[in-house]
Amino acid sequence: MTATFTVINPSTAQPICDITRASVEDVDSAVARAVSAQRAWAVLAPGARADALRAFARVVEAHVEELAQLEVLNSGHPIGSARWEASHVAQVLNFYAGAPERLSGQQIPVAGGLDVTFHEPYGVVGIIVPWNFPMTIASWGFAPALAAGNAVVLKPAELTPLTAIRLGDLALEAGLPEGLFQVVPGSGSVVGQRFVSHPDVRKVVFTGSTSVGIDVAAGCARELKPVTLELGGKSANVVFADADLEKAAASAPGAVFDNAGQDCCARSRILVERSVYDRFLELLEPAVAGWRVGDPADEGTEMGPLISASHRSTVAGFLDGANVAFRGSAPSSADPALGDGFWFAPTVVLADRGDRIARDEVFGPVVAVLPFDDEADAIRLANDTIYGLAGSIWTENLGRAVRVARGVKSGVLSVNSHSSVRYSTPFGGMKASGLGRELGPDAAEHFTETKNVFFATDA
Ligand code: TXE
Fold first, then answer.
1. Which of 46, 123, 314, 427 has CA atoms 20 to 30 A from the CA of 357?
2. Edge-to-edge strands of the sheet including 347-350?
């Protein structure tokens, strides 16, 4: 393996810079520094840890524009989305800055003494991040982990390391102790695997593909190490005949084509009640045609390129033999500025149950539309995948909304909207979409172990 890797701008296919790959020895040195930084961090007064995280949040806030521009360059995210992502990191830090002073244990009534529990940090936490949302997914791990008194070593994806590396610098600039939060770029098989096998990394958080997630979990099991997994998805956008069809159709492109479909929560199956199937497609077509794909640096752009040439071929492979109903637009080779970018036009496919495109994660701007017959059929079809991450339900019938929300096996559902991520609410998947939850009120606690201490009071 070469000592460096080249980071590419997906909008132009041009190289941006070379990054040095960390070796196993580099990871071991980083973990050793983290172990020592964590000891000092964990014994700081809770208020001092809170202040340090708030200072980090303020520095991130002051660099939102710089981080956003870096994400446009490295990931091809539209500038509006990239600004949201950078601000979200500051908000996540601010939210979990409240945790050190709220990690209360319990006092449990027992005979002969006083019994109390403590939430003790694991020590060093290893966080492995994918390329689709490099900043936000990183922050969902590092902010609550730090808040709970841990040190963090974080491995960004090789395709998109730049904003994570910058966040590592900003942590130091904000005054976080040296070694407490380290970004270690490199390959999954070396750096990621070393997080799994290193005895001093006491918890691993992994976001990425289901197949690698299973290997990471198996490795963690051998080390008896807890692991959180955020994996793939094939989420359903379920549209009933009694829904506000105009609104459902107008919002459907954003729910799947945001980040060019490279989103674990993408509503990549639209399930439509048969009686309104044709009408829904009529409404969907102009919404897809109007979805603005182009230069991510332009303020009006809604979708940029795919992340790499190889990922574009994978996505294109899903269209072999597919029944394409209509497509939106994308820059082409005729455009001298963007012609070499990894563009892919939003695509709507009419699918049958059991088709590969109706069950497997595409992770690109391709949506499969399928009809269903009634409520029970909708739930059955929504659950007809190995995944269970997100989903949306469109209906004006409250009882139905509740029944379907309880019937669909997914971790994050929304009714008459497509919301998935709020830092204050839990996020994560069922079935092959993952293990454990991130974000929400309890995330800092997930980075702790409970210790029970009994104090005898008998004289
Ligand atoms: O994921 P990987 P990739 C899905 C999506 C996508 C596919 C591949 O379908 O097309 O996965 O994406 C590190 N031990 N999702 O290649 O390979 C790797 O370096 C430890 C869904 O990015 O799983 C990177 O940092 N770590 C998903 C991270 O794991 C290893 C988001 C993810 O890489 C490793 C991204 C190993 N053996 C992709 N091998 C979602 N649902 O959000 C790799 N890594």
1. 427
2. 323-327, 347-350, 366-372, 269-273, 236-239, 390-394, 412-415
